[in-house]
Structure formats: structure tokens, C-alpha cells
């Protein structure tokens, strides 16, 4: 299990997250929501081991992330950031990078590695573009390639920062189906989401951030009934045939 215990974290002298305690259990989807600047991306980087807490602990199965070697950590945690540089390589080569934690040096891919990468591309719908350069496909297609790379990594914990960016609605729904399948396979899935309605519909647990503090972690129904959405976003939620978000007056 990934776990944060009383964590303070940030960059250089700036503290972004304050006193965060959060569990990300396997077999569940946790959506991380909050207004812009609330610390969502920083929280995910912390869980991925990309930044080290200033205070408190970031743990994997009870062991501090900073004490786990990068290769062993990459076998357990896959992280897809919101944006990244576009490398000069094909989609298939990018997806095969997800196999790095499982290969030796020099990088020699086995038939098994290539089959795992193929299945990941098929699952995300990018297989027909496997020979295309990343720089020559759309932003949504690149996102599918990065998602496929994370799937090819075969980690127990998958962390996605705004994975639906640049994807049309049909692909977003397909992506949510992938998350549900991963959950059904016992994986931990943590997703930073901008779409509140989608987060409430998809997730088993919602972590609500405001200004670097965790206001609540609870089920969608508990979050809706608690009033924390109004506190975090300045909107109130009304239920009907579909959720509506209205400004707090």
C-alpha cells in the first residue's frame, strides 16, 4: 500500500503540502481533486517518489520510498505526469520504455516484453499508430502512448495526473473502463482529475485538497453530503438526473 503520514512537501524553500495523511489501497480507484494550485500534482509526485517529504513519511508497504532503489520502485509504481517533453521516437519505442525496470543492461527486449507492450497499446487504442513518431501524432494520441507505457510497466500502483487531457469523451470513457479493469485486477489507481462529475462517478474514494491541505478522503456519496465541495471549490452540488454545480451564494 502507498501511504503518506503527516507529510509536508514542496520545492526548495516553498512548502506546497502540509500535514497530509493519505492511504492509497490496492483494488480501489482514488481520485484527487481540488482547485488549481491546491497541490494535486505535487501529491502525486510525492507518491511516485519523485520528491522527498520535508517532514513525515511517504511509504510503500511500510518502507520509506527514499530507501527503495529506483529500479525496485519502478517495478511497483508507474507514474504518468500531466505533461512531458516529446522524445524523438516512435510510439512503440516509447511504450517499450515501460519495460525498463524488468530488463537488464543493455536494453534487450524479449518476445514477452514486446507482447506486453503490444497488449498495452491495443488496450489504449494506439496500436494502429505504433510506427508513428510521437512528434507527428496528436496530443491525445501521445497521451494514449504514455498510458500504454504505464500499463506495460506492470506496476501494482498506477498514478495518473490529468490523464483525460486532450482526449475526446469516447476515449475518456474507454480510459475509465481501463481504470476499472485495473482496479478489478487488484491494482491501486490514483488519478488527479479536473472534471468533478467524472471523478465522483469513477472513483471509489475521493481525496479533496485545498491550499495544500487534505480536507477529506471519503467515498463519493460521503463527499457529496459533507459540503466539502463547497469549501474546496466555492460551488454547491445539486442532485437530479445529473449532478449540477452552482456557485455558492
Write up what this structure looks like.
This protein is of the alpha/beta class. The chain has one domain (25-50, 70-247): Rossmann fold. It is 35% helix and 28% strand. The protein has helices at residues 40-48, 70-76, 91-96, 111-124, 139-152, 169-184, 196-202, 220-226, 228-233, and strands at 2-11, 14-24, 28-34, 55-60, 63-64, 77-80, 157-161, 188-192, 205-210, 213-218, 235-238, 244-247. It has a six-stranded mixed β-sheet, with helices on both faces. Helix 4 (111-124) packs across helix 5 (139-152).
SSE blueprint and pairings:
Layout: E1 2-11, E2 14-24, E3 28-34, H1 40-48, E4 55-60, E5 63-64, H2 70-76, E6 77-80, H3 91-96, H4 111-124, H5 139-152, E7 157-161, H6 169-184, E8 188-192, H7 196-202, E9 205-210, E10 213-218, H8 220-226, H9 228-233, E11 235-238, E12 244-247
Helix pairs in contact: 4-5
Which structural class do the helices and strands define?
A: alpha/beta
- N/C terminus separation: 40 Å
Task: Characterize the main sheet.
Answer: 6 strands, mixed
Helix content: 25-40%
CATH class: Alpha Beta
Rg, alpha carbons? 18 Å
What is the H/E order?
A: EEEHEEHEHHHEHEHEEHHEE
Strand percentage lies at 25-35%
For the largest beta sheet, what order do the strands appear in spatially?
A: 6-7-8-3-9-10
CATH topology category name: Rossmann fold
Oligomer: single chain
CATH superfamily: P-loop containing nucleotide triphosphate hydrolases
Give the total of domains. Answer: 1
User: What's the architecture in CATH terms?
Assistant: 3-Layer(aba) Sandwich
Low-confidence residue ranges: none
Name the average pLDDT: 94
The dominant shape is globular
Number of strands: 12
What is the overall number of helices? 9
